User: Fold DNA ligase-associated DEXH box helicase from Anaeromyxobacter oryzae.
Amino acid sequence: MRRPPIELHRGELRVTGSSLHLDATRRVECAFVSHAHGDHIGRHDRTIATDATLALMRHRLGEPKRRPTEHLPASFRAPFGLGELTLELFAAGHVLGSAQLRVTRNGVALGYTGDLCTEPTHAAEAAEVMPCDVLVVESTFGHPRYVFPPKDETLLAVRKFVDDARSDGATPVLLGYALGKAQEILKYLSDAGVPCRVHPVVHAVNKVYEAHGVPFPNVKALAPDEGPGFDEVVVCPPHLARSPAMRGVRRRRTAILTGWAIDGSRFFKGVDAAFPLSDHADFPSLVRYAKATGAGRVFTVHGHEDELAAALRKEGIRAEPLKEQTQLELI
Ligand SMILES: [Zn+2]
Assistant:
């Protein structure tokens, strides 16, 4: 039987019969990096990514000390050759610079979404549909129970949480990942004139966003041992809520911003509220997206692969989870 055009090789995704890896975390000869979240990046001999992703990677990984890395910046919708492959990037709408990749070989187009958010966000390029024959789609929220309310509704609920806390004399603390989630809520609040203070880790990522044309007009870094002003909102990554930089933040009222909030706030310790603000597509959006690409064959990866593949099969699409043994069976 023929091998699929993409395979899992020692836990890393690779375009079959080529040296092109996708979001490899171990060092490889050549990798496309869809975006700069930690579980998608590594130091490679050659890295293909958007300018913004390369800048965010440099910020997160620092400059290599010994073996140099060759960076190949790529723009959206500008096809280029790599050996016998033609590559083209499409915006993924997940975080700044996030991209999907379409690889065309012998007239067959293989699409890889990376992490995908089809609903417009406040701090990433709007996702584009990537027409292809074979699609590899992420399935983080690929279970039917993950249906997110409209983003505007969620943002209004966060705004109400913030206003209520402030009128009670408490400091609203919003917990979100340093790259992507933090910028989305900051963009929303700061553009609305709400003054914000951020953990220094978030502030450093904001600087990269600002260098790429996304300003945050009312945002300052938390100063050591100095609390926020009475009307300021604090934004911090969840794992740093008790870090020294947050020492001066008293009378907190805390909310976490994550798609997993659909599972209920009881799953999050030490928070007063949880809001399903996600930078991933929910289940209906993933199904809609896979259909919109026109792909006749779909492989699901990362998350609820079985449930999403089953849903796509119900839609008449040949779909299956991409697993290491899938490749062995198909050879
Ligand atoms: Zn991600």
Notes: The longest strand covers residues 85-91. The pocket of zinc ion is lined by residues 35, 37, 94, 115 (CB under 6 Å).
